[in-house]
Specification:
Number of strands: 0
Order of helices and strands: HHHHHH
Largest sheet: none
Radius of gyration: 30 Å
Strand content: under 5%
Shape: elongated
Helix content: over 70%
Structural class: mainly alpha
Distance between the termini: 49 Å
């Protein structure tokens, strides 16, 4: 597509240069118009050829593909919930903190005290420790993550907001 458009542009520019180099410039408009028409017809031919060749292929089911991607992403999140705290801190904690901020409207950078108070009220002290973006483990990164049950409880509480 890009090559065809570039070729059409060069065809029109080349025709213009040839007309400018000729001693009689009375046909400049006609020659430029013909060059542009050829370029546009070539582009139209290319686009219709693409549409016809694409019609032979099997149609892609967008809903099924979206469902497959969602299932894959969900399975990955669940496996990270059962993995180590390092995986939880890198992948789940930022996602959960973002969801918490969107659900409550609290921004961590605006008012930290209100942010933490809202988190403790919503999740309780035990679950808030797993959502709080500032509670990343520096030393005990290989300890186990809280697991599916904690992730499920956190997501259920986020849904209730």
């Amino acid at each position: 597509m890009k090559k065809l458009a570039a070729a059409g542009f060069l065809l029109v520019v080349g025709a213009e240069l040839m007309v400018l180099a000729a001693p009689d410039r009375s046909m400049a408009l006609v020659i430029s118009g013909i060059a542009l028409a050829v370029a546009l017809l070539g582009l139209r031919w290319y686009l219709t050829r693409e549409a016809v060749s694409g019609a032979d292929e099997e149609p892609i089911d967008d809903a099924a593909e979206a469902l497959r991607r969602w299932m894959s992403r969900t399975e990955t999140l669940i496996s990270r919930a059962d993995s180590t705290r390092r995986d939880w801190d890198r992948h789940l904690r930022p996602m959960l903190a973002r969801q918490f901020e969107m659900a409550t409207g609290q921004k961590r950078l605006k008012d930290r005290a209100a942010y933490h108070a809202t988190g403790q009220m919503l999740f309780g002290a035990q679950l808030w420790a797993w959502v709080d973006p500032e509670n990343i483990a520096r030393n005990d990164a290989n300890e186990p993550a809280p697991g599916r049950a904690a992730l499920d409880e956190i997501l259920q509480r986020l849904e209730r907001i």
